[in-house]
Amino acid sequence: MLVKIEAIVRPEKTEQILAKLAEKGHTAVTRMDVYGRGKQAGIHIGDVFYDELPKELLFLVAEAAYEKEIIDVITSQARTSDLGNYGDGRIFVHAIENAYTISSGAEGL
Q1: Strand, helix or coil at 52?
Q2: Which is nearest to 60 in space by CA: 70, 46, 72, 49?
Q3: What stretch of H or E contains 39?
Q4: pTM of this prediction?
């Protein structure tokens, strides 16, 4: 079975997450700049209210056997302290029925 792992993380954490994923052999990653807010519904810094904050969306598809390893890498690299902080991000995991390579038509990863 395949899983799609989507991680919404702080932009300043992206490079170290990608480097650690590559060390573990997970090099096929897509990343996008995104904006949004979590449960805290924005943030006040002084007199300024930020409704939506810049984040990075990373997603990759892997064999389900690697799910925990990938989650552990992302979590350990994305946290801003030992206990974590609001705004460190979220991870979502989806089951994937199949994948196809466009250039060759090959099925699976």
Answers
A1: coil
A2: 70
A3: none
A4: 0.87
